[in-house]
Structure formats: C-alpha cells, structure tokens
Design a protein that fits this description.
With 153 residues, the protein is mainly β. The chain is 8% helix and 40% strand.
Length: 153
C-alpha cells in the first residue's frame, strides 16, 4: 500500500517595481508583512529615486522573517537629500544590491536647556541584531548582504 504523499506548499517569489520614493516605502512596508517562508521578495528600482519630503523618513525598518528580501537598485541611485538614513534593518535576511546610496544622514535629536542631543547612529544603513519589540515578539538575527553598493556624500 502506498502512503499518502506529503507536499510542502510551493511559495512564489514576488517582484515589485518602484519608480518613486513613496512606492519604495510602500513596498518595504509590504515586504515586512509577508508570511514567513513565502519565497523571495524583491524590490526593483526602475529609475533613480529621490526622497520626496512627503513620505515619513526612516520608514525602512526591514523585518523579513523566514523569506529573503532583496532590494535591487538596478544600477540606479537612492538620494536621501540629507534627510535621514536610507535603511534601518532590524532582522531577517536582507540583500541590498546594484545601487548608489547618496546623501544619507543619520541625525541625532536636538538638545534642550537641560539635556544633550540624541545620537545619530547608523549613517546610510543601520543594522540591529536581535532584541525584543514592544508587542512581545522578537526580532530574528540579521543577515545583511551588500553587493555592488556605493555611497556618496
């Protein structure tokens, strides 16, 4: 008698093309909401992206648990207009490749009469590794790979 075959689900890879900074923010937020082991999620630039001043800065909290996230600049650039860092990676397997990151800055908080300012850590990319988050969950260890990424200014 033959036993019943156990078939693991086959997850499809997803590619999202972005041509504006707002689309990039949306794609990154959607990547973090994918279920674990849902296949590779790739965000592909279709042109140079410029921080537009209307999207919240530092929204790139990349938390991809179980499935790899690839941000492929396609040879284009991400210009942050000296507004903030480009990426804040807090967990998962993330690859950033084929792009120039320009004018990214991690600025500290302002001081007041009684205290010093906050530290502006991370530069263009800040990478955290593990820890707890407010909803009781935990970040996964971070694996960040950079391929053919240049930084300017």
């Amino acid at each position: 008698m033959l036993g019943a075959a156990s078939l693991a689900p086959v997850w499809a890879d997803t590619t999202v093309n972005v041509s504006t900074y707002a689309q990039l923010v949306n794609a990154v937020n959607n990547a973090g909401g994918q279920p674990p082991d849902n296949g590779q999620y790739t965000i592909q630039f279709t042109q140079d992206l410029i921080y537009d001043g209307t999207s919240a800065t530092n929204l790139f909290t990349l938390t991809k648990d179980g499935s790899p996230l690839v941000i492929d600049g396609g040879g284009f650039s991400l210009d942050m207009q000296s507004a903030d860092r480009a990426f804040f990676v807090v967990g998962g397997s993330v690859t950033i490749q084929n792009m120039e990151i320009a004018n990214a800055a991690a600025k500290g908080g302002s001081s007041n009469d009684r205290a010093g300012g906050g530290m502006g850590a991370g530069g263009a990319i800040f990478v955290a590794d593990g820890g707890s988050i407010s909803n009781g969950g935990y970040w996964t260890p971070t694996a960040l790979t950079l391929r053919d990424v240049s930084f300017s200014n």
